[in-house]
Amino acid sequence: MDAIKEFIERKWTLVGIALIGGIILGVVYAWALNPVEWVDGEPAQLRWDLQVDYLRMVIDSYSVNLDPTLAQDRYESLGDTRADILAEVGKAPGDLSPSEIQKFQALVAVESPIEEPPEPAEEAAGSTASKLLLPVLIVTFVLGVLLVGAFYIRRRMEAEPAEVYAEPGFEMMEDEVEPGVVDISDQPLATFRTTYTLGDDLYDDSFSIESPTGDFLGECGVGIGEVIGVEEPKKVAAFEVWLFDKNDIQTVTKVLMSRYAFNDDESHNRLAAKGDPVLAESGGMVSLETASLKIDVRIVDMSYGEGPLPEESFFERVTIELMAWQTTG
Hints:
Layout: H1 2-33, H2 48-65, H3 68-76, H4 82-91, H5 98-108, H6 121-158, E1 183-184, E2 190-197, E3 204-210, E4 216-228, E5 235-245, E6 252-257, H7 259-263, H8 265-272, E7 276-279, E8 285-289, E9 293-304, E10 315-328
Parallel strand pairs: 6-7
Antiparallel strand pairs: 1-10, 2-10, 3-4, 4-5, 5-6, 8-9, 9-10
Protein backbone atom coordinates (compact mmCIF):
# COMPACT_ATOMS: atom_id res chain seq x y z
CA MET A 1 0.00 0.00 0.00
CA ASP A 2 2.80 2.40 0.84
CA ALA A 3 4.40 1.77 -2.56
CA ILE A 4 1.10 2.48 -4.33
CA LYS A 5 0.55 5.65 -2.30
CA GLU A 6 4.10 6.82 -3.04
CA PHE A 7 3.60 6.15 -6.76
CA ILE A 8 0.35 8.15 -6.83
CA GLU A 9 1.89 11.07 -4.95
CA ARG A 10 4.89 11.11 -7.28
CA LYS A 11 2.64 10.89 -10.35
CA TRP A 12 0.48 13.87 -9.36
CA THR A 13 3.58 15.84 -8.40
CA LEU A 14 4.83 15.37 -11.95
CA VAL A 15 1.40 16.37 -13.28
CA GLY A 16 1.47 19.55 -11.21
CA ILE A 17 4.98 20.43 -12.37
CA ALA A 18 4.01 19.75 -15.99
CA LEU A 19 0.86 21.87 -15.61
CA ILE A 20 2.72 24.86 -14.19
CA GLY A 21 5.48 24.52 -16.77
CA GLY A 22 2.88 24.23 -19.53
CA ILE A 23 1.17 27.44 -18.42
CA ILE A 24 4.48 29.31 -18.39
CA LEU A 25 5.55 27.95 -21.76
CA GLY A 26 2.11 28.61 -23.25
CA VAL A 27 2.12 32.25 -22.14
CA VAL A 28 5.67 32.79 -23.41
CA TYR A 29 4.86 31.18 -26.74
CA ALA A 30 1.53 32.99 -27.23
CA TRP A 31 2.68 36.48 -26.20
CA ALA A 32 6.40 36.55 -27.03
CA LEU A 33 7.43 33.88 -29.56
CA ASN A 34 4.36 33.76 -31.78
CA PRO A 35 1.95 36.62 -31.02
CA VAL A 36 -1.25 37.05 -33.00
CA GLU A 37 -0.81 39.13 -36.15
CA TRP A 38 -3.78 40.73 -37.88
CA VAL A 39 -3.75 40.77 -41.69
CA ASP A 40 -6.19 41.81 -44.41
CA GLY A 41 -7.94 44.24 -42.07
CA GLU A 42 -10.40 46.93 -43.12
CA PRO A 43 -9.70 50.68 -43.00
CA ALA A 44 -12.34 50.96 -40.24
CA GLN A 45 -10.03 48.90 -37.99
CA LEU A 46 -7.13 51.35 -38.27
CA ARG A 47 -6.13 53.86 -35.62
CA TRP A 48 -7.81 57.26 -35.85
CA ASP A 49 -4.74 59.05 -37.25
CA LEU A 50 -4.19 56.31 -39.86
CA GLN A 51 -7.86 56.52 -40.89
CA VAL A 52 -7.40 60.27 -41.42
CA ASP A 53 -4.28 59.62 -43.54
CA TYR A 54 -6.19 56.95 -45.50
CA LEU A 55 -9.04 59.36 -46.29
CA ARG A 56 -6.55 62.03 -47.42
CA MET A 57 -5.12 59.41 -49.77
CA VAL A 58 -8.63 58.51 -51.05
CA ILE A 59 -9.41 62.19 -51.76
CA ASP A 60 -6.06 62.63 -53.52
CA SER A 61 -6.72 59.53 -55.65
CA TYR A 62 -10.24 60.74 -56.54
CA SER A 63 -8.87 64.11 -57.67
CA VAL A 64 -6.69 62.21 -60.16
CA ASN A 65 -8.87 59.34 -61.43
CA LEU A 66 -12.33 60.97 -60.91
CA ASP A 67 -13.92 57.57 -60.29
CA PRO A 68 -16.96 58.34 -58.06
CA THR A 69 -17.92 54.70 -57.47
CA LEU A 70 -14.44 53.73 -56.29
CA ALA A 71 -14.18 56.84 -54.12
CA GLN A 72 -17.59 56.16 -52.52
CA ASP A 73 -16.66 52.52 -51.78
CA ARG A 74 -13.41 53.56 -50.14
CA TYR A 75 -15.20 56.21 -48.09
CA GLU A 76 -17.84 53.71 -46.94
CA SER A 77 -15.07 51.30 -45.82
CA LEU A 78 -14.23 53.69 -42.96
CA GLY A 79 -17.44 52.69 -41.19
CA ASP A 80 -19.75 54.74 -38.99
CA THR A 81 -17.11 57.37 -38.10
CA ARG A 82 -16.38 58.32 -41.71
CA ALA A 83 -18.14 61.70 -41.43
CA ASP A 84 -16.04 62.59 -38.36
CA ILE A 85 -12.89 61.53 -40.20
CA LEU A 86 -13.82 63.70 -43.20
CA ALA A 87 -14.40 66.63 -40.84
CA GLU A 88 -10.93 66.06 -39.38
CA VAL A 89 -9.43 66.08 -42.89
CA GLY A 90 -11.16 69.43 -43.48
CA LYS A 91 -9.44 70.80 -40.36
CA ALA A 92 -6.04 69.32 -41.24
CA PRO A 93 -5.97 68.89 -45.06
CA GLY A 94 -2.24 68.24 -45.32
CA ASP A 95 -1.25 68.46 -49.00
CA LEU A 96 -4.87 68.57 -50.19
CA SER A 97 -6.36 71.75 -51.60
CA PRO A 98 -9.71 73.10 -50.31
CA SER A 99 -11.30 72.55 -53.73
CA GLU A 100 -10.36 68.84 -53.70
CA ILE A 101 -11.94 68.39 -50.28
CA GLN A 102 -15.08 70.30 -51.30
CA LYS A 103 -15.53 68.17 -54.43
CA PHE A 104 -15.18 65.00 -52.36
CA GLN A 105 -17.66 66.29 -49.76
CA ALA A 106 -20.14 67.01 -52.54
CA LEU A 107 -19.62 63.48 -53.90
CA VAL A 108 -20.27 61.61 -50.66
CA ALA A 109 -23.04 64.03 -49.47
CA VAL A 110 -21.71 64.19 -45.91
CA GLU A 111 -24.30 64.10 -43.13
CA SER A 112 -23.85 64.82 -39.43
CA PRO A 113 -22.93 61.64 -37.60
CA ILE A 114 -25.70 60.15 -35.49
CA GLU A 115 -24.59 59.17 -32.02
CA GLU A 116 -25.53 55.59 -31.35
CA PRO A 117 -26.66 54.46 -27.89
CA PRO A 118 -23.99 52.76 -25.78
CA GLU A 119 -23.77 49.03 -25.92
CA PRO A 120 -25.69 47.32 -23.09
CA ALA A 121 -23.55 45.95 -20.28
CA GLU A 122 -24.73 42.39 -20.85
CA GLU A 123 -23.88 42.50 -24.56
CA ALA A 124 -20.49 44.05 -23.80
CA ALA A 125 -19.76 41.31 -21.29
CA GLY A 126 -20.81 38.67 -23.81
CA SER A 127 -18.58 40.25 -26.46
CA THR A 128 -15.61 40.26 -24.08
CA ALA A 129 -16.23 36.63 -23.15
CA SER A 130 -16.37 35.62 -26.83
CA LYS A 131 -13.06 37.39 -27.48
CA LEU A 132 -11.40 35.57 -24.58
CA LEU A 133 -12.79 32.15 -25.54
CA LEU A 134 -10.35 31.48 -28.38
CA PRO A 135 -7.17 32.32 -26.39
CA VAL A 136 -8.41 30.15 -23.49
CA LEU A 137 -9.03 27.22 -25.85
CA ILE A 138 -5.60 27.66 -27.43
CA VAL A 139 -3.86 27.76 -24.05
CA THR A 140 -5.79 24.68 -22.89
CA PHE A 141 -4.80 22.78 -26.03
CA VAL A 142 -1.15 23.78 -25.63
CA LEU A 143 -1.18 22.68 -21.98
CA GLY A 144 -2.63 19.32 -22.95
CA VAL A 145 0.06 18.81 -25.60
CA LEU A 146 2.78 19.80 -23.14
CA LEU A 147 1.41 17.42 -20.50
CA VAL A 148 1.41 14.50 -22.92
CA GLY A 149 4.89 15.49 -24.04
CA ALA A 150 6.13 15.60 -20.42
CA PHE A 151 5.00 12.03 -19.76
CA TYR A 152 6.51 10.89 -23.05
CA ILE A 153 9.85 12.53 -22.27
CA ARG A 154 9.82 11.00 -18.77
CA ARG A 155 9.39 7.52 -20.23
CA ARG A 156 12.18 8.12 -22.70
CA MET A 157 14.46 9.35 -19.93
CA GLU A 158 13.85 6.19 -17.92
CA ALA A 159 14.82 4.11 -20.93
CA GLU A 160 18.40 3.73 -22.14
CA PRO A 161 19.36 6.78 -24.17
CA ALA A 162 20.13 6.14 -27.80
CA GLU A 163 23.33 7.33 -29.38
CA VAL A 164 23.08 10.25 -31.72
CA TYR A 165 25.43 10.11 -34.65
CA ALA A 166 26.56 13.32 -36.23
CA GLU A 167 28.50 13.12 -39.46
CA PRO A 168 31.80 14.98 -38.98
CA GLY A 169 32.25 18.12 -40.98
CA PHE A 170 28.52 18.63 -41.58
CA GLU A 171 27.29 22.20 -41.06
CA MET A 172 23.87 23.71 -41.53
CA MET A 173 24.04 26.49 -44.10
CA GLU A 174 21.68 29.47 -43.78
CA ASP A 175 20.28 31.27 -46.77
CA GLU A 176 22.08 34.52 -47.32
CA VAL A 177 20.06 37.47 -48.53
CA GLU A 178 21.90 40.40 -49.94
CA PRO A 179 20.80 43.47 -47.94
CA GLY A 180 18.96 46.19 -49.81
CA VAL A 181 17.82 43.91 -52.67
CA VAL A 182 14.11 44.11 -53.51
CA ASP A 183 12.49 40.85 -54.54
CA ILE A 184 10.26 41.30 -57.59
CA SER A 185 8.32 38.38 -59.02
CA ASP A 186 9.37 37.11 -62.44
CA GLN A 187 6.00 37.90 -63.99
CA PRO A 188 4.26 41.31 -63.78
CA LEU A 189 0.83 41.54 -62.18
CA ALA A 190 -0.54 43.26 -65.28
CA THR A 191 0.46 45.27 -68.35
CA PHE A 192 -1.62 48.22 -69.54
CA ARG A 193 -1.37 50.34 -72.69
CA THR A 194 -2.96 53.73 -73.29
CA THR A 195 -2.83 56.12 -76.27
CA TYR A 196 -3.43 59.86 -76.43
CA THR A 197 -4.15 61.66 -79.70
CA LEU A 198 -4.52 65.38 -80.31
CA GLY A 199 -8.14 66.39 -79.76
CA ASP A 200 -8.82 64.02 -76.86
CA ASP A 201 -9.31 66.91 -74.41
CA LEU A 202 -10.74 64.63 -71.68
CA TYR A 203 -7.92 62.10 -71.82
CA ASP A 204 -7.54 60.37 -68.43
CA ASP A 205 -6.93 56.60 -68.26
CA SER A 206 -6.72 54.63 -64.99
CA PHE A 207 -6.24 50.93 -64.33
CA SER A 208 -6.88 48.72 -61.28
CA ILE A 209 -3.98 46.57 -60.03
CA GLU A 210 -4.94 43.21 -58.53
CA SER A 211 -3.05 40.25 -57.08
CA PRO A 212 -3.08 36.84 -58.82
CA THR A 213 -5.91 35.87 -56.44
CA GLY A 214 -8.01 38.91 -57.37
CA ASP A 215 -7.31 41.08 -54.30
CA PHE A 216 -7.23 44.84 -54.90
CA LEU A 217 -3.70 46.23 -54.49
CA GLY A 218 -3.87 49.71 -56.00
CA GLU A 219 -4.28 51.74 -59.17
CA CYS A 220 -2.18 53.47 -61.81
CA GLY A 221 -2.96 55.76 -64.68
CA VAL A 222 -2.07 58.60 -67.04
CA GLY A 223 -3.78 61.96 -67.46
CA ILE A 224 -3.24 65.44 -68.87
CA GLY A 225 -0.84 67.40 -66.70
CA GLU A 226 -0.29 70.68 -68.57
CA VAL A 227 -1.57 72.40 -71.72
CA ILE A 228 0.00 75.20 -73.72
CA GLY A 229 -1.82 77.92 -75.61
CA VAL A 230 -5.54 78.73 -75.57
CA GLU A 231 -6.77 77.39 -78.90
CA GLU A 232 -8.95 74.31 -79.36
CA PRO A 233 -8.24 71.46 -79.26
CA LYS A 234 -6.06 71.54 -76.16
CA LYS A 235 -2.33 71.34 -76.81
CA VAL A 236 -0.94 68.94 -74.20
CA ALA A 237 2.59 69.77 -73.07
CA ALA A 238 2.87 67.25 -70.23
CA PHE A 239 1.25 64.09 -68.84
CA GLU A 240 0.94 62.97 -65.23
CA VAL A 241 1.71 59.29 -64.58
CA TRP A 242 0.61 58.18 -61.09
CA LEU A 243 0.64 55.11 -58.87
CA PHE A 244 -1.69 54.51 -55.90
CA ASP A 245 -0.86 51.76 -53.37
CA LYS A 246 -3.45 50.80 -50.75
CA ASN A 247 -0.57 49.94 -48.39
CA ASP A 248 1.08 53.36 -48.78
CA ILE A 249 -0.01 56.79 -47.52
CA GLN A 250 0.52 58.81 -50.68
CA THR A 251 0.12 58.67 -54.46
CA VAL A 252 3.43 58.75 -56.37
CA THR A 253 3.43 60.94 -59.48
CA LYS A 254 5.89 61.67 -62.28
CA VAL A 255 5.39 64.21 -65.07
CA LEU A 256 6.29 63.32 -68.68
CA MET A 257 7.10 66.67 -70.31
CA SER A 258 7.59 67.82 -73.89
CA ARG A 259 11.09 68.98 -74.80
CA TYR A 260 10.02 72.64 -74.81
CA ALA A 261 8.32 72.40 -71.38
CA PHE A 262 11.26 70.47 -69.94
CA ASN A 263 13.81 73.07 -71.08
CA ASP A 264 11.66 76.10 -70.19
CA ASP A 265 12.55 77.05 -66.58
CA GLU A 266 9.12 78.45 -65.72
CA SER A 267 7.22 75.41 -67.03
CA HIS A 268 9.75 73.01 -65.53
CA ASN A 269 9.48 74.52 -62.04
CA ARG A 270 5.69 74.72 -62.18
CA LEU A 271 5.28 71.09 -63.19
CA ALA A 272 7.89 69.90 -60.69
CA ALA A 273 5.37 70.74 -57.95
CA LYS A 274 3.08 68.00 -59.31
CA GLY A 275 5.73 65.27 -59.47
CA ASP A 276 9.22 64.37 -60.61
CA PRO A 277 9.80 65.96 -64.06
CA VAL A 278 10.89 63.59 -66.84
CA LEU A 279 11.67 64.39 -70.47
CA ALA A 280 9.36 62.34 -72.70
CA GLU A 281 11.29 60.46 -75.39
CA SER A 282 10.22 57.62 -77.66
CA GLY A 283 11.42 54.35 -76.10
CA GLY A 284 12.20 56.05 -72.80
CA MET A 285 11.42 54.33 -69.52
CA VAL A 286 10.74 55.54 -65.98
CA SER A 287 9.66 53.73 -62.80
CA LEU A 288 7.30 54.63 -59.95
CA GLU A 289 7.56 52.70 -56.70
CA THR A 290 5.55 52.63 -53.45
CA ALA A 291 5.59 50.43 -50.36
CA SER A 292 4.50 47.24 -52.16
CA LEU A 293 4.00 48.16 -55.83
CA LYS A 294 6.10 49.27 -58.76
CA ILE A 295 5.20 50.24 -62.30
CA ASP A 296 7.60 50.51 -65.22
CA VAL A 297 6.42 53.20 -67.63
CA ARG A 298 7.59 52.96 -71.25
CA ILE A 299 6.84 55.44 -74.01
CA VAL A 300 6.16 53.08 -76.90
CA ASP A 301 5.76 55.81 -79.52
CA MET A 302 5.27 59.57 -79.63
CA SER A 303 5.17 62.49 -82.02
CA TYR A 304 4.97 66.27 -81.63
CA GLY A 305 2.31 68.49 -83.16
CA GLU A 306 2.98 71.32 -85.58
CA GLY A 307 1.57 74.83 -85.58
CA PRO A 308 2.17 78.40 -84.45
CA LEU A 309 3.32 77.26 -80.98
CA PRO A 310 7.04 76.70 -80.18
CA GLU A 311 8.66 73.67 -81.77
CA GLU A 312 8.29 70.37 -79.84
CA SER A 313 6.02 72.05 -77.29
CA PHE A 314 2.92 69.81 -77.51
CA PHE A 315 2.12 66.19 -78.40
CA GLU A 316 0.32 64.97 -81.50
CA ARG A 317 0.19 61.34 -80.34
CA VAL A 318 1.64 59.33 -77.44
CA THR A 319 1.37 55.61 -76.65
CA ILE A 320 2.38 54.62 -73.11
CA GLU A 321 2.80 51.15 -71.62
CA LEU A 322 2.53 50.55 -67.86
CA MET A 323 3.81 47.29 -66.38
CA ALA A 324 2.76 46.66 -62.74
CA TRP A 325 4.82 44.58 -60.30
CA GLN A 326 4.37 43.57 -56.69
CA THR A 327 7.50 44.09 -54.60
CA THR A 328 8.67 42.75 -51.27
CA GLY A 329 11.69 43.35 -49.18
